[in-house]
Every structure is written in C-alpha cells, then in structure tokens.
Amino acid sequence: MSTPSIHVLGISAAPPGGDEVFSGAEDKSAAGSRLRLHGRITVLGQDESFDKVKIRLRGAVRTKIGARMAVEKLSTSSVKRTNLDFKPAYSPSQQHTDEQQLDFACIVPLTRDRRKPSSVTTPAHDARSRYFNDKLDRLVPSMTMSGSTYITRVTALKDRHLVQGSCEVVYWLETEFLRSQTGEVVRKLSCPADISSLTMLMRAEVGDMSSNDPTGHLEQVAKPQQLRTMDRFFHSTTRPEVSIQMPKILGYLVSDSSSLATGCRRLSIPVTVDVALPLSTSDQRQRHLEVQTQCLKCTVKTKWFTRKTFTTGPSSMDSAINNTTASAQDMVLTLPPLYNGSGDGDGNGNGNSAAGYRKYSTSMDLDLLLPESVAGPSITTELLHVNYILDLAMKFESEDMLTTPYTAHVSLPVTLRVAEPCLVSTRHTYDPLLGYLEEDVDEMLHAPPPYMP
Predict the structure, then answer these.
(1) Alpha-carbon dihedral of residues 175, 176, 177, 183, nearest 10 degrees?
(2) Which superkingdom heads the taxonomic lineage of this protein's source (predicted)?
(3) Using one digit for the tens of pLDDT, what is the confidence trace for 127-157?
(4) 415-424 per-residue burial string, b: 16 or more CB within 10 A, e: under 16
C-alpha cells in the first residue's frame, strides 16, 4: 500500500439529540461530550492490504520543573471504520485520481475530576455522589504555560535555586490500518490536534470543584458607609436595608460579533436588589408612589483572578509553579424603578409590614466582558489546576431613598464547566463551529413586573 496521510479538519459542537454513533469510546467520560474532532485520511492506490481502520484521539498533560518531568494521560476516545468507508476523491480540475478519502469524527473526551471520595457510604450519599461526579466531568483544552519557582537543595549548606518550568496539554490522533484475519497492524499514522477552548459552550457556577449543589441563590447584605456622629444618632432607627441576590448558576459564556476577533466572551449575571424602607408617619400612599418612580445608581467594580498551578506530582507540591492573573472592569448602572412585589398592604402604601419596613425590589444584569485569561474551563487533574475567583464590589446610591451610599462585597469561587447546548437561552443562535452566538438584536430592557393594584 502507498503512504497514506491524516490531518485534522476542525472541531464542531454537536447539538443535543444528535446521532450518537460514536460507541467506540474507550472511556465512559466521552459519552457526555458534545465536541467532535473531524479529520480525513487519504490513501493513494488502496489495495487489499488492510480491511479495518482504528482511529484514536489521545491527550496528555506534560509538565517539567527543573530536571523533573511528569506525564499524565487523559481520557481516550476511538472510532472504527472499514476499507469500504473510503470514498473516491474528486479533483476540482476534474482530473482522474486514484486517491480515496475517509472522513471521520472522534468524540473529544471529558476528563473526570480528581476528587478524594467521601468517607460517608450510605446508599443515598452514593447515589448523590455518582450524580454530581458525572457533572464534574470536564474537558481539558490544549494549552501551554511556563513559569519559575524556587527549590531548596539540601547540601552542606541549604540554598535556594531558581528553576524554570513548563506545562502543556497536547492531543494527537493515532491511526492503525489492520488486517482483521490475522490482527496484523499494516501501518500506523499520527498527527497533532488542537482542542481550543473557544469552541466550548461553558457555564459559570458559584462553587469550587468540590461543590455539591450549584442550585439556589446567594444573598449578601449591603452595609451603609460610615456616617457622621450626628447622622448616626438621628438615623439609627430609620435606616433602610439593602440586600442583593444572585443565582449560583451565574450564566453562560457567550460570544458576539465584537468579541470573536479577540477571543473574549461575555457573561451576563442577573442580580436582584431588595430595598426595605422604613414606614413613614406621613402620607404613606404618596410615599409609596414616590418610591416607585425613583431609581438606584449602582457602581460596580469587578475583578477576575485566574490561578493556574502545575507540578510534577503529588510528592513535589513544594516545587509547584503558580501563575495568577488579575483583570478589572468598572461600570455604572442605573437600575429600573423599584416595585413592591411582596403584596403588603392594599397597593396604595397602606398596611403594616414586618418590623415597620416596606420591601421593594428591582433588578439588573451585570454584563461582564471576560478577559482572555477566563477563556477556558476550570481544571483539576493530578498535574494541572486552573481555578477562578470573581470579586464584586457594588455601591448603591440614591439621593431620595438612601441617606448614605450602601456597599456590598462578594468574593465568589467560580467554576467554568462544559454545558449542554439545550440549556442556553433562545436569545442566541447555534453555530456548529463557534457554538452559541448572541443575536444581533436591540438592547433588551429589563423592566419590573407589571404593577398589580
């Protein structure tokens, strides 16, 4: 047989409900993946030297720190074809050619989180652990990084030396041409493959790798800034209360036309702001109507911290290399008018609320442009760790409702994981190669629920 060739065509994200014809995965973690690596094998003058083709997609994490090296194998997926699957290749010039081509697609496998099992062994706990461990399967994209650290060598005198280190996540395709009767391998081929994180549809959740329940909401009470002594005396019993709520599932990382060129994505986080105002002794109906026409001003300072750590094994954690990247974004938002959604009173401001307060609410979307350092998923393997922290500082101001600015600060450990396409809002269109793209529509207005008298 003549010398064949193999090369990668690209990566696509399969929509939900697609045909699952990739039953040859060697690792069960590949079953939940929606990413497909497409390739092509070209053979010139095919003869009867082989009748089966086995294609494997392999991956590994390779680290080197000083003189120490380590390799961690990632999950493997495979697909099998026969010589009957090869099709004649047609030249654009319509010239006759003896080339035959085989187009194939391999599952890009997910990698299971390296978590220590819990000592609890009840049946209910085992079922819950299996469920969440399935959710913790994640994809490790191709990447390279480098850094330096100090190591201590014990000699006659203890001294510290600066050593350089590097880490890379690599994927490659392996192809074997087989003769089924004898099991003989006629020829082997291989080529590198780049698994980019930009093709992944990812979801942002609050919680670290060991978090068991990403559902629910987070609540943070905003505190008033320091008041003067006289103001603190007069307003000690009539101070408003401000709090914020946000879901633990923060949202999805989406791309739009403005960020595709730079590789950045956007994350829109819905935030509910609750304001409890003390009941006034004056005309409550007039006060109620005035509040529903007033708006809060919110100043947001956002910081993303990306921490990447690699080592050469559990026994050499003292020589691990850490890379931390920080990026900031500031914004000023004017929130929609407050509305009373608790049903207290008769809708005209009459009636008593708990503890002498009447509760109002409003909402906003924190539209964050993610830096390039937050482009990939969270990773936990034996040699490589990638995690994120989102730091939010908010200041609420209103000349009429709040006597002083209120501030809220939250520091959230955020996990980015591969998401199912069917879970994404219909505001986005699906592209097989780019994932979900935001539709080119007018800016959406976030209005409060309709007022019910």
Answers:
(1) -160
(2) Eukaryota
(3) 434 433 444 457 899 999 999 998 876 665 5
(4) bbbbbebeeb
| DSSP result, 166-212 | EEEEEEEEEEEEEETTTTEEEEEEEEEE---GGG--EEEEES-TT-S
Which pairing describes strands 143-154 and 158-179: parallel, antiparallel, or unpaired?
Answer: antiparallel
Handedness of CA 227, 228, 234, 236 (dihedral sign): positive
b/e map of 15-49 (b: 16 or more CB within 10 Å)?
eeeeeeebebbebebbbebbbbbebebbbeebeee
- Measured between alpha carbons, how far is 432 from 9 in angstroms, rounded to an integer? 13
* Better-scored residue on pLDDT, 342 or 303: 303
CA dist 339 and 276 (Å) reads 11
Indicate the SS3 state at residue 130. Answer: helix
pLDDT value, residue 109: 84
Mean pLDDT, rounded, for 27-55: 75
Residue 334 to residues 96, 157, 272, 311, 444: CA-CA distances in angstroms?
68, 63, 13, 46, 14
On the CB side of 370, how many CA atoms lie within 13 Å of its CA? 31
Q: Is 360 helix (H, G, I), strand (E, B) or coil?
A: strand
Q: Output the six-digit token pair for 95.
A: 């010239």
pLDDT tens digit sequence for 311-334: 998 777 668 999 999 999 999 999
Tokens of 424: 């994404």
Per the structure block, which two tokens stand in for 59?
Answer: 């991956």
**Exposed (0-12), middle (13-18) or buried (19+): which is 379, by Cβ within 10 Å?**
buried
pLDDT score for 264: 74
- Residue 227: is it exposed, middle or buried by C-beta count within 10 angstroms (0-12/13-18/19+)? middle
**pLDDT at res. 78:** 92
Rg (CA), the chain: 29
The dihedral formed by the CA atoms of 439, 440, 445 and 449, expressed in degrees to the nearest 10: -30
Token couple for 248: 């633990």
Which stretches does DSSP call E strand in 50-92? 52-65, 68-73, 77-82, 87-88
pTM above 0.90, yes or no: no
Nearest to 181 by CA among 45, 49, 24: 49
